[in-house]
Amino acid sequence: QVQVVESGGGLVQPGGSLTLSCAASGSMFVIGTMGWYRQAPGQQRELVATITRGGNINYTDSVKGRFTISRDNAKNTVYLQMNSLKPEDTAAYFCNAFVYDGSRTSVWGQGTQVTVSS
After folding, report:
1. Rounded (10°) CA dihedral 55, 24, 110, 36
2. What was the pLDDT predicted at 26?
């Protein structure tokens, strides 16, 4: 019953910035850790960043210093501010959330495309 929906993807030039948003909606008890993952064509899906409900953050090394993950618990929304974008950041970006509704369920969004190209 819970779903997450990403928005904010698009085309940006190298060195540019983009902000992604992901909102969780539906019946739920608790939304725990939320995160961003990305998948380029022909590649496996990889972790970009995660943030716990209490604000503990982890980034993959390739985005440290460039990306910032944040969340608004009142809105059940997680954000990814992406700066100094590189062509290798091009991928479909997916939001993930752990939902606690009697059991723990991992919920994925549909993805939003980020393309970094001149």
Report:
1. 0
2. 86
